[in-house]
């Protein structure tokens, strides 16, 4: 990089940089280990870095951390009184000819550009082609003319707006922040939310003594180093919930994407008691931990006004009998208004995981909403997932009960668009996943070739093969994986569904064996004595070689392999499922169809 700027601009025309000088500095080396209570990538996280702390004559410091896989800086202020931050300067000057995987926001007609669901694609754009009207949320992955690749991201975002990046018509990206909301209005429609109608001339009013978010540059000589990088987690504030043993993520179902379009059943499918009992039976049969009751189980504006087609007492009793947990969807505005009574009611029902949806902002006021909700849920020993949400950025370390969140263009987009393509799918691990786990909701069983795909509501397809969807459960970080396919279809393929249901969602170790952004990825993960290896491709067919040099030499494994069938290029749901024995240094060659994938489950014999 070329020399770049960092500064804080305060009220009354004050800035950190003006009329200032260095007073002192300190350097030290740190070698720690973090034990993750909800291991997205690995249980034991090495936190090894060199720290430079520079103190100035003005009451603040700048801290730099240098890791082997990235660098970061942040400001730490020590003003006596509260401060008003007019703006923050963070510019990143790259070499001429650099490009970026840039998730530019498509502005809504009814709101300003900072109102976004954080669900964009990551096209590769030349930096000098991005004008100042091009605005993207982070992370943004920069590709230099030669390596390394550099991921720009933040960590430890609290009581402060999230960082966006804007183009400049040059190889420079500059930070932009949503100004503080002064006035808001509630939208109409089925899922009302607050839109900002007037913003202040500042981005935050906050305590004068505090640390500000880390500005992070994640570094990778090879593309495959990016998806397993956990620097954002390392930089985040430690857990605030104490004993987290009650945080128990796993796998669930969700009916939203397929619109509860069940078949081969004796009842009218829909948002009703019979359908949810069917989902509970499915979860019990195939090894899932829970079901999600998505939008429609209650009035969106009143969580105590239950859909008359639903008997919660019956569903709760049936789930308890089967040993299956129930999870509930909520509208963010409604949950905020009914928070404590709603959480008390969920506790009574035995609900230990909720989703809240349609937030779509990350200004200071909204970021504080995330913290308030996560703390309230933790007080009730409840896990939470945010939808319509900004990426985690280390929040899941501070509140491990926030086991995942959306902020990704995933399966539900197949209802009405073709944007969730295999090329997009194999870009996400190198871009969006740099900021933490995401709820893509894979497992679609109605699979389509590139020519055959159509967005059809009620008969929702996914692009690419069945094994491409299966591989997502291993390739993507998400401690609370959600199966969004049709359980009626899954019942017809019990061996495949048993394999899917047996997959863990937390990992002792993660190794990305190979991969290129937007082209393909092969990931190996360990859970206990078992290993899970999965790969995905874009629309280009390719041959993958897996060498098992990472497994225990003293152990022989039973390998269950699910790979694209010989006709998967024409019938995307075609797959082959078989068992073989594997030992260390064995080699397997696997052909991936266009939009293909594979999964190998290794169980110690």
UniProtKB/TrEMBL annotation:
Task: State the UniProt keywords alphabetically.
Answer: Calcium, Glycosidase, Hydrolase
Domain (Glycosyl-hydrolase 97 N-terminal) ranges: 2-238
Asked whether the UniProt record includes Calcium among its keywords, one would answer yes
> Which residue ranges does the record assign to the Glycosyl-hydrolase 97 catalytic domain?
257-408
Superkingdom per UniProt:
Bacteria
A molecular function (GO) term:
hydrolase activity, acting on glycosyl bonds
Offer one Pfam family short name for this entry: Glyco_hydro_97
Which cofactors does this protein require?
A: Ca(2+)
Q: Which InterPro entries does the entry mention?
A: Aldolase_TIM, GH, GH-type_carb-bd, GH97_C, GH97_catalytic, GH97_N, Glyco_hydro_b, Glycosyl_hydrolase_97
Calcium as a keyword of this entry, yes or no, is: yes
Record-annotated membrane-spanning stretches? none
**Where do the Glycosyl-hydrolase 97 C-terminal oligomerisation domain residues begin and end?**
506-602
PANTHER family reported in the protein's UniProt record: GLUCAN 1,4-ALPHA-GLUCOSIDASE SUSB-RELATED, RETAINING ALPHA-GALACTOSIDASE
Q: How does it assemble?
A: Monomer.
Name the chain's protein. Alpha-glucosidase
């Amino acid at each position: 990089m070329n020399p770049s700027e960092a500064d804080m601009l305060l009220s009354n025309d004050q800035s950190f940089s003006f009329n200032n000088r260095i007073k002192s500095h300190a350097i030290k080396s740190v070698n720690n280990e973090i034990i993750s209570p909800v291991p997205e990538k690995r249980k034991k996280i090495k936190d090894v870095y060199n720290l430079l702390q520079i103190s100035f004559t003005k009451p603040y410091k700048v801290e730099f951390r240098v890791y082997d896989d990235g660098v970061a800086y942040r400001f730490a202020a020590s003003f006596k009184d509260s401060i008003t931050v007019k703006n923050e300067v963070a510019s990143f000057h790259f070499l001429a000819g650099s490009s970026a995987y840039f998730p530019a926001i498509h502005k809504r007609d009814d709101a300003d550009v900072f109102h976004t669901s954080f669900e964009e694609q990551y096209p590769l754009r030349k930096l000098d082609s991005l004008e100042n009207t091009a605005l993207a949320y982070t992370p943004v992955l920069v590709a230099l003319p030669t390596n390394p690749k550099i991921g720009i991201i933040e960590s430890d975002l609290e009581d402060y707006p999230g960082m966006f990046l804007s183009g400049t018509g040059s190889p420079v990206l500059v930070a932009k922040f949503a100004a503080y909301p002064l006035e808001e209005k509630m939208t109409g429609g089925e899922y009302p939310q607050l839109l900002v109608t007037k913003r202040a001339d500042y981005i935050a009013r906050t305590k004068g003594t505090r640390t500000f978010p880390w500005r992070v540059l994640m570094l990778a000589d090879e593309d495959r180093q990016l998806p397993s990088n956990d620097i954002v987690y390392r930089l985040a504030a430690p857990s605030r919930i104490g004993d987290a043993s009650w945080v128990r993520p796993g796998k669930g179902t969700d009916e939203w994407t397929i619109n509860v379009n069940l078949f081969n059943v004796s009842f009218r499918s829909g948002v009703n008691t019979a359908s949810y009992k069917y989902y509970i039976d499915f979860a019990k049969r195939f090894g899932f931990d829970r079901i999600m009751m998505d939008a429609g189980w209650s009035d969106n504006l009143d969580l105590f006004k239950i859909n008359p087609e639903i008997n919660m007492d019956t569903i709760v009793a049936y789930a308890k009998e089967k040993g299956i947990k129930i999870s509930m969807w909520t509208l963010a505005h409604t949950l905020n208004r009914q928070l404590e009574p709603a959480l008390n009611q969920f506790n009574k029902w035995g609900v230990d995981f909720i989703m809240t949806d349609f937030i779509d902002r990350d200004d200071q006021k909204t970021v504080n909403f995330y913290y308030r909700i996560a703390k309230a849920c933790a007080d009730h020993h409840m896990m939470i997932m945010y939808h319509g949400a900004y990426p985690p950025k280390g929040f899941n370390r501070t509140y491990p009960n926030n086991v995942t969140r959306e902020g990704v263009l995933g399966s539900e987009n197949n209802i009405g668009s073709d944007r969730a393509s295999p090329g997009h799918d194999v870009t996400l691990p190198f871009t969006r996943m740099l900021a933490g786990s995401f709820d893509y909701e894979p497992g679609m069983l109605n699979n389509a070739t590139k020519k055959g795909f159509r967005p059809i509501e009620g008969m929702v397809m996914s692009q690419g093969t069945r094994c491409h969807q299966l591989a997502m459960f291993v390739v993507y970080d998400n401690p609370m994986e959600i199966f969004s396919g049709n359980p009626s279809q899954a019942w017809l393929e019990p061996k495949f569904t048993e394999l899917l249901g047996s997959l863990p969602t937390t990992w002792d170790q993660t190794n990305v064996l190979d991969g290129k952004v937007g082209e393909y990825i092969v990931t190996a993960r360990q859970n206990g004595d078992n290993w899970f290896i999965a790969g995905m491709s874009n629309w280009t067919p390719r041959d993958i070689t897996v060498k098992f040099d990472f497994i225990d030499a003293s152990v022989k494994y039973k390998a269950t392999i699910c790979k694209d069938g010989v006709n998967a290029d024409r019938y995307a749901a075609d797959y082959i499922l078989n068992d073989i024995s594997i030992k260390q240094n064995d080699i397997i060659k696997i052909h991936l169809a266009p939009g293909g994938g594979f999964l190998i489950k290794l169980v110690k014999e």
